[in-house]
């Protein structure tokens, strides 16, 4: 009786991948990839971080500015932001902001005087913030009334001017016609940051 002869399977020949099957990755230099230079020295450049402004620097930034973003509080407690013109009196630590009686921020500050003013610096990374409590003077309702005289006196003193005669009368009439108010913000805290570039 003749038996069948079984063949032992042979191992397949090694297959070399086709170029399209596995594209080789980029050749990298370990030293470059790890950020190390010759002899393992680091070539990473440290970027400057923000630094806290000193009080004189904050005062200088507030004094150099003319416009800022005023944050008052809605009845819900959410912040309300508006761009305002302001005057900074560093000796008194006060900010003066002129507005009118019908503005939303006027009603908000009459209800809750807590307020903050954000002022941008000379570049997008620097700023100053002044926080405090606002007192609302006015409105002026008649030319030459007490509210108008006080508002004019405070703003003129801040500007270093002394309106008199016809110019004073015209200024008082304008305050009343526009129903002007003045926010006197007594600053209790101020701070800021800057990012210095080499």
Automatic annotation (TrEMBL):
Any Pfam family the entry gives: PNPOx_N
SUPFAM superfamilies registered for this protein in UniProt: FMN-binding split barrel
Keyword Transmembrane helix annotated: no
The Pyridoxamine 5'-phosphate oxidase N-terminal domain, residue ranges: 55-156
Record keywords: Oxidoreductase
Family annotation (InterPro entries): F420H2_bilvrd_red/Heme_oxyg (IPR052019), Pyridox_Oxase_N (IPR011576), Split_barrel_FMN-bd (IPR012349)
This protein's record includes keyword Manganese: no
Renumbered residue ranges of the record's region Disordered: 1-52
Taxonomy, superkingdom: Bacteria
Protein name in the entry: Pyridoxamine 5'-phosphate oxidase family protein
